[in-house]
Design a protein that fits this description.
This protein is mainly α. The chain is built from 10 helices and no strands.
């Protein structure tokens, strides 16, 4: 059975963070080189936008690394955490719930027979899930790790929930993420006319870094504990 190389995962995470942090440092240095404080405060508004872009980018990258490592293990759906198994079967569940899906045998002769077409979807669902437990877990990163182009706290919670985490772990991140979003939106929508002073920006950047640190810890801890398995199916638990 393949195993997750935690050292390699941590190295990949660090590389992802390092290039983003280096880019922000370079931009901060450019801002610091401006002569007047008023110019620097205005330029820091652009820094806030970049800080948000890198926050959303690194969060998506970290979750995607987590998903990639789980996919690489090729565990069965029967072994997988129920949240991951449900996410892997999203298309099958979607077809079952799609009221516009018609039974091909009767699509023309009985297009409006809702009971028949619902039965056909139920039947197809059972046919597709007959070997459910033996199927290999495969998650679609773009579906499971959807930041919705606006990584609000509730979106973070949704991603965590889909990946089998307690979404409440994001509660302590809410203040920092809301503040970052508010600042980003003020700049993007033109409602924030004043600049950003150095202390204000440093405080925001530090808070965002703490959120990313916490996310890294949560993901690597879950990989270490093999939390992607369902209860009783972890190799360490079964011996």
């Amino acid at each position: 059975m393949p195993a997750i190389d935690l050292a390699a995962v941590r190295s990949e995470i660090e590389q992802e963070r390092e290039w983003r942090e280096a880019e922000l440092r370079a931009l901060k240095n450019n801002v610091a080189g401006l002569r007047q404080e008023q110019q620097r405060e205005i330029a820091r508004k652009a820094l806030v936008v970049m800080l948000y872009a890198h926050f959303e980018g690194v969060a998506k990258a970290l979750f995607s690394i987590y998903v990639k490592e789980i996919n690489r293990l090729a565990i069965s759906l029967a072994e997988a955490h129920p949240a991951l198994a449900a996410a892997a079967m999203a298309k099958v569940f979607g077809a079952l719930r799609n009221p516009s899906s018609k039974c091909k045998e009767f699509a023309r002769s009985l297009p409006d027979d809702t009971k028949l077409h619902r039965y056909a979807r139920d039947r197809e669902f059972l046919e597709q899930t007959a070997d459910f437990g033996a199927r290999l877990l495969h998650l679609e990163p773009e579906s499971v790790v959807d930041t919705e182009s606006n990584l609000k706290p509730v979106v973070l919670r949704k991603i965590l929930y889909r990946l089998g985490f307690d979404p409440a772990i994001a509660d302590s991140w809410e203040g920092a993420v809301h503040e970052l979003l508010r600042r980003r939106n003020d700049v993007a929508h033109g409602t924030g006319t004043r600049g950003v002073d150095a202390k204000e920006y440093e405080r925001l950047e530090r808070a965002v870094k703490e959120v990313v640190d916490a996310l890294v810890l949560a993901l690597t801890d879950a990989l270490s504990r093999q939390a992607y398995y369902s209860a009783g199916n972890r190799p360490s638990a079964t011996g």
